[in-house]
Amino acid sequence: MARTFWLKHLQRYRNQYLASLSATVGIFMVVCTSAWSSPALPKLLTEPNPPVSITPDDGSWILSISAIGAIPGMLIAGLTVDRVGRKWPLVCSAAPLITGWVLVATARSAILLYVARFLWGVSYGIAYAIVPIYLGEIASDEIRGAVGSFVTAMAKLAILFEYAIGPYVSFEALAWISLVAVVAFLATFVWMPESPHYLLDKGRSEEARSGLRWLRRRADVEEELAATKKSIERTVSERAGFSDLFVATYRNHLIIVLILALGMQLTGSLAILGYAQTIFGKISSKLTPAEMSIILGVVQFVTVLFPIFLVDRFGRRPLMLWSTAGSTLGLLLGAIYFTLDAADVAVEPYGWISFVGLLLFVVMYAFGLATVPFTILSEIFPKNIRAAANATQGIVSSIIIFGLVKLFQVALDNVGAYLPFWVFTLCTAATFGFVFLFIPETKGRTLDEVHELIAGVRSPPIKTPR
After folding, report:
1. What are the angstrom distances between the C-alpha of 2 and each of 7, 142, 149, 211, 311?
2. pLDDT grade, residue 45 (50/70/90)?
3. Do 367 and 306 form a contact (C-beta atoms < 8 A)?
4. Residue from 393, 390, 309, 465 nearest 137 by CA
5. By CB neighbour count within 10 A (0-12 exposed, 13-18 middle, 19+ buried), where does 71 fall?
6. Do 98 and 33 contact (CB within 8 A), yes or no?
7. CA distances in angstroms from 342 to 138, 335, 418, 423, listed in the order given
8. Considering only CA atoms, which of 433, 163, 414, 117 is closest in space to residue 292?
9. Each residue of 80-137: pLDDT tens digit?
10. CA–CA distance from 87 to each of 131, 189, 199, 438, 447 (Å)?
11. What is the SS3 string spanning 350-419?
12. Amino acid 298: pLDDT
């Protein structure tokens, strides 16, 4: 019975899933650049005769500078997504990636690595600004949560890809191999339809009708087209820009965006994943840092698949609460271990506890914090303000990421791993409280209903799944 249900479900929504998977290959290709640092930096810092000689401080700049590049990427996305569309700006985001990988593969100075990382950041910013918008506009209400979770599923697959290959190939070979992700994206996404929502907004009704028929796999889409057109007409006369995020109408929306941006990044997830092999080198274990990184990648990829099936069943809010609580516990175990180690307590027999703690963190982070915010962000803003909101969220996230990643290496070198882990633990615990107070449930609601809910209700009750 269950098998029959899922077969019918996949058959009904097949084309929407295909378009969503193709779009999120764009996430895969940009996240490969983030995960690259975990296996790549140790090659430059510890191996004899590296192609580029760097210091630990150089390494922290190489890792963190991509966050600065993401800011112009987000701005480019914000300026083009409503003028040019969702599809072609996303396709063009592959160009900086290709240039960056070629620079890394041929680099003989740290300056070229800085340039490559900045270019990667531009692509990262464009992809993360546009993909959630595209998914939110092509997906039916029934599967919007599931396809929103594809963003993080692809991100975790990219991390596993780099972690599994990076330690066993040369620095240059890793760059050439990673270009495969860009090729896969271009080979699939160029054939996908533009967002029907965007096409209707530009008066291209026939193209919108054709694209929606392919996505929905049925000829009769007039009712949905009419509803979408009505929604566009209702907002076309409204102001739309970055300044409008601060008006009273969108106050609650902005609060949610800032909570999600702060909550996701202040867990320290990108610093932990970017320095995974370095962190594991400080844990006593029979496993090598590379082996622990691969286990980490496998566990978080497998775990992140569950929210795809659960987010539309149990809801966004419960998954976020479980995720923040579990992430706090995992980080706490790591913080305690590194604190005892810094205090010269004999912790060697208990290295497995900190490793389990980090695994618990990535599991619980993947279970909600890493997936649900992208679903929520694709839902909560009306069309006329959505691009500005996504760009704002991305810029705030980029600034936080830059600070965290740069300071993480400083803390490791001058204080110890315990300091950043305590900061991450306390920030994640605070995020639990913010989610409880401010994040509403949007499961099963239309986009218009979600907008009205957030504008009028700050903390609605949790809906119990049936």
Report:
1. 9, 17, 22, 30, 18
2. confident
3. yes
4. 390
5. buried
6. no
7. 51, 11, 8, 16
8. 163
9. 988 899 999 999 999 999 999 999 999 989 999 999 999 999 999 999 889 988 998 8
10. 9, 8, 11, 33, 21
11. HHHHHHHHHHHHHHHHHHHHCCHHHHHHCCCCCHHHHHHHHHHHHHHHHHHHHHHHHHHHHHHHHCCCHH
12. 86
Q: What is the pLDDT of residue 365?
A: 86
CA 279/CA 275 separation, integer angstroms: 6
Per-residue pLDDT at 223? 86
Single out the residue of 179, 82, 97 nearest to residue 130, CA to CA.
Answer: 82
Confidence of residue 308 (pLDDT cuts 50, 70, 90): low
Closest CA to 452 of 373, 376, 380: 380
**pTM of the full structure:** 0.78
Per-residue pLDDT at 282 exceeds 70: yes
Percent of the chain with pLDDT over 70: 85
- Residues written for the chain: 466
CA distance 73 to 67: 10
How high is the pLDDT of residue 442? 64
Tell me the pLDDT tens digit for each residue of 24-39. Answer: 999 999 999 989 988 9
Confidence grade of residue 177 (pLDDT, cut at 50, 70, 90): very high
CB proximity list for 383: less than 8 A, separation 6 or greater: 197, 201, 231, 232, 235
- Report CA-CA distances (Å) from 308 to 17, 221, 263, 449: 12, 26, 20, 22
Q: What radius of gyration, in Å, describes the C-alpha atoms of the chain? A: 22
